[in-house]
Amino acid sequence: MKLLILATIVGSAAAFAPTSLDVSSIALRSSLSDNLNGWKPDQNEPCYGLPGAPYSFMDPLNFTRNKDLNTVKRLREAEIMHGRVAMMATLGYIIGESTPTIGYGFDVHHTIANNQLAELSTAQLLPLFLMINFAEAYRATKGWNEPGSQSLFRLRDNYYPGDLGFDPLGLKPDTYQGFEDMQNGELNNGRLAMLAAAGMCIQEQVTGKGILESLGH
After folding, report:
1. I need a labelling partner for 39 at 20 to 30 A (CA). Which of 32, 55, 86, 158 fits?
2. Dist. CA 114–CA 123, nearest whole Å
3. What's the rounded mean pLDDT across residues 139-146?
4. Are 155 and 74 in contact (CB under 8 A)?
5. Is the pTM of this model over 0.85?
């Protein structure tokens, strides 16, 4: 089971793999702007003007400094995807410990979230990891170039980071300003959720108590 978890983590971390292409080898093409939700890459702006970058932009470790457009898009792809996972994880910590679950039935006084995954059987874990792999395979097909000598770890030119075309409720705005506002909200909530999920994990590991239990509920 630990190998399955490790494989999933490694697959997500691949988005941060380094690229050998130099910044001078990538030219901005304004013709792509129509395919990028109205975003027009501007090399004079932080992160080429991606939403969420000029808005409270902070990069003390210079991850995006002097990076080419595709590398910056790839870093944003990693950030927004990890943010979405963290938002679900934050809810999962509280809901998983405070409501009936598959593994524990209606007994809500069960194991803390940090330990619940390890207690599930292989039959229960397999569908979970299959869903993760199917989702990652779809994301790779949608946004990433096929592996090749010049395209390894590179996003498609006409792919906007994080936009998988999945919008069953029709929430995506029709205008660039509306899309930028929604993207800023998603990014900032995702960043907060990554900190929150990490904090919950550490707190439970140290105290051995659930989140709500630690608050006296």
Report:
1. 86
2. 19
3. 89
4. yes
5. no
